Structures are given as structure tokens and as C-alpha cells.
Amino acid sequence: MYTQALDTHGKEPVPPVAGEADSHAARFQARIDEEEKIEPKDWMPEAYRQTLIRQISQHAHSEIVGMLPEGNWITRAPTLKRKAVLIAKVQDEGGHGMYLYSAAETLGISRAEMLEQLLSGAAKYSSIFNYPTLTWADIGAIGWLVDGAAIMNQIPLCRCSFGPYSRAMIRICKEESFHQRQGFDIMIKLCQGRAEQKAMAQDALNRWWWPSLMMFGPPDADSVHSAQSALWKIKILSNDELRQRFVDQTVPQADYLGIKMPDPLLKWNEQRGHYDFGPIDWEEFHNVIKGNGPCNRDRLRTRVQAREDGAWVREAALAYAEKRAAKAMKEAA
Ligand SMILES: [Fe+2]
Ligand SMILES: [Fe+2]
């Protein structure tokens, strides 16, 4: 448990001398400009800490909730090999969540507090996981598009200024690239299969394409906090830059598969050297973020149920640890 009285974790101190806060802030920014990593016990502005807690915990929640749509297909994977791969992937996502909760804990918030925020519905997580997985092709589309978008988002964050987050990103990105390839491999098999299988792949692409583009967040013009986060190097590239990179990378992959993005306005722009694409339905995005997506309630209900079902395991583990500690004390006495 985090004990604030014993460990300030670099919390912004009350400056003993007037002007001291400014010099702390100037030194802090200079370290970031020099590409030096900020570590948990270093001095940091309170707003930097809070922004990172929000960003890292939302990321952790997304990994944990992200296990649900794919977990839904473990029992129905078409072959033993596909089942084993999918189990490994879903486990990886759970590991990413744990890793990121640990990184956030170094900033002075407890895991229990973060979980409470998730289960009460107060915390946000990636909008994409509130869409249902209707067919096996959705598992391919998620790996290909959702993990692909996650990598696009996360690779720049390997250079983020906060040490524990940047190190977590390096490790997580390695696994995400396996996830992306396994998704694309499912799509290849379906697209080389019977007409019905290819139609399934196309249908999954139709449903997952736009939500994948929304994963990069609102347009730059509407994003709050962006300028400050860029200065602090906790956001390296803007939402629109990342989205464009993702579109440019993914369209040739769809061409290879022989399926089409559901966007009549999608077109290579010779002059810009990028693909132009149609408008995103931001109303849908905000609706899903607010909790009104097709699966929001279902996802939270499942997480709450999992916590309730696991209560006896936590209680038993705690009782066992206490018993062992008491025995060790008795033996040492
Ligand atoms: Fe992940
Ligand atoms: Fe992943």
C-alpha cells in the first residue's frame, strides 16, 4: 500500500524560498529537453504527475478491458493452435495491464484506487473495447487493426520522459507486434479461403475500421492538454499525425488482403504523399467514451463480477500469507 506520510514520491514540495518553485520547474524542463528520464522520486510538477497518472491508468484499464472482447472467442477458436495463440495474447494483455498499474503506482496512487475508478465507471478506457466481437474474423481484425493502432500510438511513447512508462512501453511494444502479426495472419487465411470466409473478413474490417481510427483520440484542434503534454514529452506525436501514419500503413495491407476499407473518400493524395480519408463520426466516439457504446455496461459488469468471484481467492491468499508470517515470527523468536 502507498503511504504518503513515509514517502513523498517526489511530490511537489512547498518551496522554502520564494522563487524556488520556478527554479525547480526550470531544472525539470531542462532535464526533459536534454532527453533525461524523470524517475518516480525526482521532483516533478503536480500537473505532470496527475497527467501521467491519468494517462497510464487509462492505458492500464484499456489493456484489462481489452481482454474481454477477445476472451469471448477463446472457447470458439477454430483450431487448437489458434486457441493457444489467442490465450497467450489475452494473457499478454493482462500482463500489460499489471505492468502499467505498477508504473502508475510509482506516482503515488494505489492499485486499489485505480481499480475502484475503473469499476465505478469513473475512469475512462479506450473506446474500441466497447464494440462486440461477432465472428472469428473480428479476432483477426482486432489483432491487425487494434493492436496495429496501439503500436503506432505506443512506439513514440518508448521515448516518453517518465522512466517507468517509457520502459513499460518498450517491453509492451515487443508483444504488441506479435499480436498484430497474429491478427494479420488470421486475416490472410480468411482472405485466401472460401468466398464466405473472405466476406467475413470484409465484414469485420467494415465494423472495426472507423473505431480503430477513433483510437487515436479527437482531432488535434479539439484535444485538450496536448501542447503541455508535448512539452513534457509524455505525448510525442499528435493524434492526427498518428492517425495519418496508421492509415498510410494499413491501406496497402488491406490491398494485399484484397479487401476494402469502408470509406468511399479514401484516396492516395500524390501531392501530400498521404492517403486522404473521409470524416470520422466524432459523435459516435464521444457517445462510446461517455459509456453509451454497444458493450460499455456489459464490459463493466463482467469486470465487477470478476472481482466479486475472485474475492475468496484474495481472502485465502491473504490469510495464508498472514499464517506464514506468524509462523516465521514464532520460529524466529
Ligand atoms: Fe496490450
Ligand atoms: Fe495487444
Summarize the structure.
With 333 residues, the protein is mostly helical. The protein has 13 helices and 2 strands, in the order H-H-H-H-H-H-H-H-H-H-E-E-H-H-H.
Describe the structure.
By secondary structure, the protein is mostly helical. The protein has 13 helices and two strands. The chain has a two-stranded antiparallel sheet with strand order 1-2. A hairpin with a 4-residue loop joins strand 1 and strand 2. The longest helix has 29 residues. The protein is globular and about 75 Å long. The site of one fe (ii) ion has 5 residues, from helix 4 and helix 7. One fe (ii) ion binds next to helix 4 and helix 7.
> Mean pLDDT, rounded to whole units?
91
Q: Trace the largest sheet across and list its strands.
A: 1-2
The 3D shape can be described as: globular
Structural class: mainly alpha
Number of strands: 2
Uncertain runs with pLDDT below 50, 5 residues or more?
Answer: 1-10
Order of helices and strands: HHHHHHHHHHEEHHH
Radius of gyration: 22 Å
Q: Please, how many helices?
A: 13
Give the helix proportion (percent range): 55-70%
Query: Which band does the percent of strand residues land in?
Result: under 5%
Instruction: Please describe the biggest sheet, giving its number of strands, its sense, and whether it closes into a barrel.
Output: 2 strands, antiparallel
